[in-house]
Design goal:
- The complex is a heterodimer.
- By secondary structure, chain A is of the alpha+beta class.
- Helix content of chain A is about 40%, strand content about 10%.
- In chain A, a hairpin with a 4-residue loop joins β1 and β2.
- Chain A starts with 8 loop residues before the first strand and ends with a helix.
- A two-stranded antiparallel sheet of chain B has the order 1-2.
- The longest helix of chain B has 8 residues.
- The chains are: A alpha+beta, B alpha+beta.
Chain lengths: ~650, ~70
């Protein structure tokens, strides 16, 4: 009897058209717990060093976790890992919805995909079986249309589909994997990797529910969701969703505006969650948004997803493509100086129908806008489009052009860093990337520990890889559960804040491996505390894990990601922040004049390395650290790595 | 604005004037507003005041919700 997991991992060789099922033992699941760590096990084992992200040899792992599919909030998540075409480092992206739970019900915990199919195919996994099917008729379709066709073809409306859109087919370097036509494994270009393999979709259906070891304890954990809802504020979070933080971010001086040159957006109310809720969520005319305008993931009580629509006008948008998150409202909105909610909803829908990451897409356009404002781009470059800040029509048009790699979109489809290398003319000065990935909408100038995490995170700038600075002081009981008892003053960038960054990074890393939602399980505002995550795992699995073991799973995954980069020759030199964060103070609002002192930042980075047991000169993990995490095999199996990890 | 605005009576775009009894603290104010979740509070721009800080007549208090994701 297995609890939580199915015990089956599907290996797909698309070149040969072969499928194999592996059945790992329980120790394997306890070591990695699923998600990112489990995927990295296969990526490290099966990809050759120096692999081209678009080569058939790149391995794409799609992994659920040990809790996925059990009826508790925040568990229906799936992590995708592969070498990233955006960063040329390791790539990693999480997504939710109903697909992850349904994949578990189909009888598989994970799919490990390699090779390249000679023609477009989709993978159909159902009731413990799997097969590859022709997808020639789906190639080129928008996600919503492809999903409709698959439901018709398989004669089952309850299938779930994780797919690429035309952007993934066109190898746009920040293409996403999309499910439900509105949920994304957004970051680091996992959609382009799937596109390079001629794999259009993974389709799942099944009834094989995971077995729970301790149903009584599990029931208690379910009930806690209701108890925790009001005191954590997750009821309000569910009502307004992540968009509800637009105005608070502005008021704190941390809403990235005009390509990260300010944390203050005068028109923040125009893009805030209140406006979205009151004027754009489906059902708003009858004040019935809670029924028609909010959506959720399998078995989640938070219900934070938006269902928005634009019923008329140039930005008319179908509600099936969901609604913008905070990140999307910022990147297509304040980053670009745009306050037209219709246009942002439309751009979000374009990303979902074509399959693109809204963060990288919006931020790449914002970068191009700053280049335009600074006279580095002309009408000749853009094909006659004026890319000034605030130009909503241009933003929407360019989004569509990127998906099709049409005109100037061909260059922007490379992501802003590669685009700046193609264009030259000093456009690199305006980048907001770390490792070539565009920064999400939380400002390291305002939340200083993020400055080190954005730089040192193995898959580029990321806001879900650690807790943010204000959380340390605001949630002392939760922080104590993970050994953090010494909160620092605002803007501190010292050793204790590096401890905070690293330990919460280990927890976030565990969350991405167990593959649960970062809004539901965590050490600050989330619905469940870290200790309650431990209890939920033990209830489902019948194990006796403690917090230390969970944090170690996170640390193991982080070091696997880091070792992958070491193997690719990527170390400390890539742990950088955008230059503008050091040399250009923010303008306006509560963060007026804020910048990051480079000397102080370098010292903090070195403190962080020492805490991680990574070499201060090279940034590579030490052999001792790798071995202590049971990862000696990663080094021993690879000649290149054994030269740099010592 | 943001999710906290629902707690504010007679809010005008997220702002309101509150009448508190003498010697009310930040914690009293949050209690009166029935805000149970953790928040960042800045009094006249200063974020370092504790929950037991006593508010004075005319203080401008900014209450910001804490969410690190998006």
């Amino acid at each position: 009897m297995t609890y939580g997991y199915t015990g089956k991992i599907l290996h797909v060789n698309l070149t040969k058209g072969e499928l194999e099922i592996e059945e790992p033992d329980e120790q394997f699941y306890r070591t990695y717990m699923g998600g990112s760590a489990m995927g990295m096990h296969y990526v490290l084992k099966e990809t050759p060093a120096g692999v081209d992200p678009f080569s058939p040899d790149n391995v794409l792992a799609l992994c659920t976790g040990i809790l996925t599919g059990t009826p508790i909030s925040g568990q229906s998540r799936l992590t995708s890992v592969a070498k990233s075409p955006l960063t040329d480092c390791i790539g990693d992206a999480q997504g939710g919805g109903y697909f992850p739970a349904e994949m578990k019900f189909s009888g598989f915990d994970a799919v490990i995909i390699k090779g390249r199919s000679p023609k477009p195919v989709y993978l159909w996994m159902h009731h413990g079986e799997a097969e590859l099917r022709d997808a020639g008729h789906l190639w080129g379709l928008k996600t919503g249309d492809a999903e409709d066709k698959l439901k018709e073809e398989l004669d089952d409306k309850r299938i779930e589909v994780l797919q690429i859109g035309p952007a993934g087919e066109n190898l746009v370097r920040f293409s996403a994997l999309i499910s439900m036509s509105n949920r994304a494994n957004g970051r680091t270009g996992m959609g382009a990797v799937m596109g390079s393999k001629n794999l259009k979709a993974v389709v799942v259906r099944g009834k094989m529910k995971p077995v729970i070891a301790n149903p009584e304890k599990f029931k208690e954990m379910q009930k806690l969701a209701k108890v925790n809802m009001e005191p954590t504020g997750m009821d309000g979070f569910g009502k307004y969703g992540t968009p509800g933080v637009c105005s608070p971010q502005h008021r704190a001086g941390g809403l990235p505006t005009y390509n990260f040159n300010s944390g203050n957006f005068d028109k923040h109310e125009e893009i805030d969650g209140h406006k979205l809720y009151n004027e754009h969520l489906r059902g708003h005319e009858k004040d019935d948004q809670n029924r028609f305008g909010r959506d959720t993931c399998f078995s989640c009580t938070v219900k934070c997803k938006r269902v928005s629509e634009v019923v008329e006008g140039p930005f008319k948008t179908d509600a099936k493509y969901g609604g913008p998150e905070y990140e999307t409202l910022a990147t297509f909105g304040s980053y670009c100086g745009i306050s037209d909610m219709d246009a942002i909803i439309h751009a979000n829908a374009l990303c979902n129908m074509y399959g693109m990451d809204t963060i990288s897409c919006g931020a790449t356009i914002a970068w191009a806008m700053e280049c335009w404002e600074e006279g580095k781009l002309t009408l000749e470059d853009t094909g006659g489009i004026k890319l000034n800040y605030g130009n909503a029509e241009a933003m929407v048009k360019v989004t569509e052009m990127i998906a099709h790699r049409e005109g100037f979109g061909e260059i922007l489809a490379e992501g802003s860093k590669k685009a700046s290398e193609i264009i030259g003319r000093g456009t690199g000065e305006y980048l907001i990337t770390s490792k070539g990935q565009e920064a999400p909408a939380h400002m390291p100038q305002v939340k200083r520990s993020l400055s080190v995490i954005y730089a040192a995170n193995p898959f580029g700038a990321d806001h879900e890889s650690s807790e943010h600075d204000p959380g340390y002081k605001a949630y002392p009981e939760r922080m104590k559960e993970i050994g953090l008892t010494n909160p620092q003053e605002k803007l501190a960038l010292n050793k204790e804040m590096m401890r905070f960054a690293m330990i919460t990074q280990h927890l976030s890393s565990a969350v991405d491996s167990i593959s649960v939602c970062a809004f539901v399980f965590g050490a600050s505002f989330q619905l469940y505390t870290p200790e309650q995550l431990v209890q939920a795992i033990n209830a489902v699995m019948g194990w006796n894990v403690d917090m230390e073991e969970i944090l170690q799973v996170g640390e193991r995954r982080l070091n696997m990601l880091r070792a992958f980069n070491s193997r690719e020759g990527v170390g400390r030199e890539s742990d950088t922040l955008p230059k503008k964060m050091f040399n250009r103070p923010l303008k306006g609002g509560r963060s007026d004049g804020y910048f990051i002192n480079e000397e102080e930042w370098e010292a903090a980075l070195e403190d962080y390395y020492r805490l991680c047991d990574w070499d201060v000169d090279t940034g590579h993990p030490s052999l001792k650290k790798m071995e202590s995490l049971g990862l000696g095999w990663v080094v021993a199996d690879n000649n290149e790595l054994s030269k740099v990890i010592i | 604005m943001g999710p906290l605005v629902d707690f504010l009576p007679n809010s005008d775009r997220g702002k309101a004037v509150l009448n508190l009894t003498n010697n009310s603290t930040i914690a009293d104010m949050l209690d009166k507003l029935k805000i149970k979740q953790r928040v960042v509070v800045a009094v006249n721009g200063d974020e370092e005041k504790g929950l037991d800080h006593i508010l004075s007549d005319g203080d401008e208090v900014l209450v910001i919700s804490l969410v690190s994701g998006g």
